[in-house]
Amino acid sequence: MAGDRAKSRRRAYSDQRAADIGGGVWSVPVPIPGNPLGYTLVYAIESPGGPVLVDAGWNHPDAWQALRDGLAGVGIDVADVRGVVVTHYHPDHSGLAGQVRENSGAWIAMHEADIALVKLFRDVVGDGTHRDFQADQLRRAGAGSHEVDAAVTFRPEPPALPDLALTDGDLIDLPGRRLRTIWTPGHSPGHICLHLEDADRLFTGDHVLPDITPHIGIYPYDRDDIDPLGDFMASLRRVMELGAIEALPAHEIRFADVAARAAEIHAHHQEKLRDLRALMAESPGPRTIWEIASLMTWNRPWDQLAPMLRGMAAGEAAAHLRALEVSELIRRTADEPVRFVIHS
């Protein structure tokens, strides 16, 4: 994830506690071992039929203990959980959903687009081809052989396969309450926010965070059949229409005006697109995705980014290049690896 404010208000995990945040909603911080994000905020919503969780946290013994003990601390036995709604398939959100289901019989729900990815990843990890896939996409983006070897990373085990496929506008099975699915693709194809209509609060997952912006990338980097950044910008506009309601994000802290923050993030990416086009105009020759990513501004200089972070930066560069291509401001060449130039 990229920062767009001077300092995140995220506090250390050691300072976090499970909390009653009113209206029959509790938050439980669940650690992400070895990750600078620190923790995922899992939310529990009460209902007469049992509590429903929004996200579940990373699949790790310490995270499982934190989730179980945190729920117990606010009076919830994990065995009583009715269901888990996963905002998106990423492991810090979906990882423990299967263990919750094993201990409670709860259902797991996720948007249908991310369920398709979970099925794909289970097949890829199962046949051992994921490292070859990563290396191939890095080469196609223009990374050198030494950069490819350094950037190929370990992929966590895929999450449990959900029981329920959600689509935009679906109401979650939460007796006595109204929790509605809002499809907000961008950070992932099936990312969802959840509008608790009876309290006018929005669980934003990673879509809208108070101080950082979610990673928006394309994988493989050279795909020309999707536009994740365009989808993300449209999703932000949907959230703006909800007005100044409280946001309950999966990271950092709760905040009061989700529409205002969505507008800030929208403006941030518009500025980033303008900067990228200006950068390409200064160097009009064809450049690979990897070359362009190395010239863009990140939260630290390119030569100080770890190999994995360079791979993520290239994915984000690819998403911004694709948005400019869709707007017909740049075009791609037929080269291998693909290159982009200012549209003539």
From TrEMBL:
Keywords, in A-Z order: Hydrolase
UniProt domain Metallo-beta-lactamase: residue ranges: 39-251
Matches recorded under Gene3D superfamilies: Ribonuclease Z/Hydroxyacylglutathione hydrolase-like, Winged helix-like DNA-binding domain superfamily/Winged helix DNA-binding domain
Pfam families: Lactamase_B (PF00753)
CDD domains (alphabetical): TTHA1429-like_MBL-fold
GO molecular function, one term: hydrolase activity
Coiled-coil positions: none
Hydrolase as UniProt keyword: yes
InterPro entries: Metallo-B-lactamas, RibonucZ/Hydroxyglut_hydro, Sec-metab_biosynth-thioest, WH-like_DNA-bd_sf
PANTHER family cross-referenced by the UniProt entry: ENDORIBONUCLEASE LACTB2, METALLO-BETA-LACTAMASE SUPERFAMILY POTEIN
Name of this chain's protein: MBL fold hydrolase
Organism from which the protein derives: Acrocarpospora phusangensis
